[in-house]
Fold this sequence. Notes:
Blueprint: H1 3-11, E1 16-17, H2 20-26, E2 40-42, H3 47-60, E3 64-67, E4 84-87, E5 94-98, E6 103-107, H4 112-122, E7 126-127, H5 139-144, H6 152-155, E8 162-168, E9 174-178, E10 208-215, E11 217-218, E12 222-230, H7 236-246, E13 251-257, E14 266-274, H8 277-293, E15 301-302, H9 308-315, E16 331-341, H10 345-358, E17 364-370, E18 374-384, H11 388-407, E19 411-413, H12 417-426, H13 429-442
Parallel strand pairs: 2-4, 3-4
Antiparallel strand pairs: 1-2, 5-6, 6-10, 7-11, 8-9, 8-10, 12-14, 12-15, 13-14, 13-17, 16-18, 16-19, 17-18
Helix pairs in contact: 1-3, 7-8, 10-11, 11-12
The structure holds flavin-adenine dinucleotide.
Amino acid sequence: MGVYESLVNIVGAERVSRGQEEIYFYSRDSGAQPPGKADYVVLPKSTQEVQEIVMLANRERVPITPMGGGFTLSSLAVPKKGGIVLDMKGMNRILEVNETSRYAVIEAGVTQAALRSYLKRNYPDLQHSTPEAPPAVTVVGNVLIQGHGHISPRYGVNSEMINGMEVVLPTGEICKIGACSVGPSWFTRGPLPELAGLFVGWYGTTGVVTKLGIRLYPRPKYRDVFVFSTDDVDLIPEAIAGVTRLDLVEDFFLISQEKPDWMNRVFFVLILSGHFEEEFALKRDLYKRFFRDFAGGGKVEFVEDLHPALRKRFLDVPPLAALAADFRKGGGFEYTGAIFPIEKVPEAWRKGIEIAHRYGMLCSYVHQVLPGPSIMFGFNYSFNRADKKDIENTRRALKESNKLTYDLGGIVWKGELGAQKMAMERMDSNTLRLITRVKGLLDPNGIMNPGNWDPGDIS
Length: 459
Ligand SMILES: Cc1cc2nc3c(=O)[nH]c(=O)nc-3n(C[C@H](O)[C@H](O)[C@H](O)COP(=O)(O)OP(=O)(O)OC[C@H]3O[C@@H](n4cnc5c(N)ncnc54)[C@H](O)[C@@H]3O)c2cc1C
């Protein structure tokens, strides 16, 4: 029996396709990277189906690319070497919410929007950390790429919020990680050997996550946004250090755009929240005082007259921080997500503008402050999807900002193949060998999302 017929046997003819339309769609994403080529698209509904598909692929040496929303923009869920795209969106059940221990257990296809609206409806006092990504992206896809959400400055990046996992290994075994491996509850992932790390940051090259236990957080009663601005880029590291030292923000990001003119400066956007009015008012006053006295005074202004539409966008969950950045028209967008130590921000800021200008683009920045403190510095590029030259320029600009990131001592987050290669070229050789060994151990036939984290000719 051929691979297609075997897949039909496992999931039924309605949930597998090799038709032209599906193949076209699943062979690319909305970023600027070149397309791949899927041979089959499958939508499993259960862990058992995933297991059977993985065992089939392992037996027949057919590549498998797991896919959630497919929205990293850096082509991480696009098959580089053909084979099966395993679209997890069919596994979309929210299995448990524990209100007291504050966690949820979900299947891998649950989207950010589905979890958010489910909690809002049924557990209005709870929330999860929601990224500023399209609502159709999955919670699992985000956690696995070490994404960040609207409460990350307060509680950590989203991969730190994992309580447990169920994973189908590339050889077909179903494996549990965290407290759920020793008992019925998914209340924590430790204290046990830290196995979640075998699947986080690996881009689906080590197994298929089928279930996830994820922490939930109290939803505060009071929230508001406070915006401060300055023209002095060199003040940024000290400002971030000071704001995070006070340790009272829920969310904290920086934005700037060359157009319109009023946006061509640094804006610090602070989301403050509180469960009591007095607590909330105290936080607000402390930050106003902090910036008034900051750097000798008068260098950072409080934006008193924030437009109501902007206030709403920033307060939405997720916030809509990117404003009018579709400068080129045509809807294309991709970014180098550079994780930097904060002291590198001024240099990255200036050089990022130079890169954008070199390729005829206007600069547009959204940077998310992360715990540490560190920062996800977005070198953002909008391009016209209908214009081949524009796409090529974007690829070149991305390559330059990836290189700049490493040259400044940062790390490219969720990088496309070129960025992964840059990381591996710079990596300690024993670390690289360890990565290769771990992959080989878990996936002896190299079927899982091949091409990613592949040292290839790097020695
Ligand atoms: C406009 C825009 C704004 C964004 N803002 C943010 C932001 O604020 N914060 C943020 O964190 N991200 C952001 N992103 C990036 C990205 O969209 C999100 O991180 C998103 O949550 C990724 O999830 P996904 O379901 O699309 O993952 P996918 O792209 O489907 O998958 C990501 C990787 O994980 C693997 N994978 C997926 N599911 C599984 C599974 N079940 N088992 C094993 N491997 C799997 C895939 O093979 C791939 O390598 C943004 C993207 C856009 C387009």
